[in-house]
Design a protein that fits this description.
Helix content is about 15%, strand content about 30%. By secondary structure, the chain is of the alpha+beta class.
């Protein structure tokens, strides 16, 4: 380790600047969304089994709710444009715009070159949690999803019910793609209900027992036609490990609601990003 320079503390004391000020982002009309939701009727539900994943579809202008049932459980969520798998949830840009964890009023943004809101969080029963003394919070866009490749790298295992594999199987089953064709479409997730942060001393990603309890939910408005896949993580509440056949695990429920006609006046699907894609040429 190099010795610190004489002005080390002065350099450390430089004030940070937010990379992407978001004051100019269009604000979602949460009151309007909630009024429409109040008229909603349930049109489908999907029970995601413990240590497995399932797909679901949501039309633009409809809502979906992810609920903890039976016991504390976290889930890994992928979203795609239902008509174009190349447009998918971009956790990194969502993190850059909204922070490491997202909650009510935040949006889930899609990948380049589209970069538009795919979905907007309208209700979060865990919004009370905030940021705890360890720097942990809920619903993170930090973690990539538990996967068999990292497990093999670290311990030589071949664990097949991690979230990456669960999502791959679910997408393949839903679309008819082979596993090899489906896997490249699986992407970094929204870790629903997961409580995470970074250690203060080493900056390492940590997890801790989720505060979620049966009946807690995250409710989301679909800004475009969505295909979703949700994995009920084999780590259960992720209090000790995230790829495990021994952790207590529980199903997650996904419900889709259609609002009454005419209850979203003025709303329209967001257009794709306006950049001209000339890239200086």
């Amino acid at each position: 380790m190099f010795p610190p320079p004489e002005d080390a503390e002065q350099r450390r004391a430089v004030a940070p600047v937010v990379c992407y000020p978001t004051q100019t982002l269009p604000r979602p009309d949460l009151n309007g969304y909630r009024a429409a939701r109040d008229t909603g009727r349930k049109i489908s539900e999907t029970l995601v089994p413990a240590r497995d994943a399932a797909c679901f579809t949501v039309k633009a202008g409809h809502f979906f709710r992810i609920t903890s049932v039976d016991g504390p459980q976290v889930g890994d969520l992928n979203l795609w444009n239902a008509g174009d798998l190349s447009e998918r949830f971009y956790s990194g840009k969502t993190r850059a715009l909204h922070g490491t964890h997202i909650t009510t009023g935040d949006r889930m943004w899609s990948s380049f070159p589209h970069l538009r809101p795919m979905a907007t969080i309208v209700e979060d029963t865990l919004d009370w949690y905030g940021i705890d003394p360890f720097g942990g919070s809920v619903h993170d866009v930090i973690g990539t999803r538990c996967d068999p490749y990292t497990g093999n790298l670290l311990s030589g295992t071949h664990y097949h019910h991690c979230c990456h594999s669960n999502l791959t199987r679910a997408l393949a089953d839903h679309t008819g793609l082979s596993l090899a064709e489906a896997e490249p479409h699986v992407h970094d997730v929204l870790n629903v209900f997961m409580c995470t942060g970074f250690t203060r001393d080493t900056g390492q990603y940590f997890m801790k027992a989720s505060p979620v309890r049966p009946g807690d939910y995250l409710e989301v408005f679909a800004e475009i036609d969505l295909l979703g896949a949700l994995s009920a993580c084999p780590g259960g509440d992720c209090s000790s490990e995230h790829s495990s056949d021994t952790a207590a695990c529980h199903p997650l429920l996904v419900e889709v609601f259609a609002p009454a006609d005419g209850t979203l006046p003025g709303w329209s699907q967001p257009p794709v990003n306006g950049y001209d894609r000339s890239h200086g040429r």
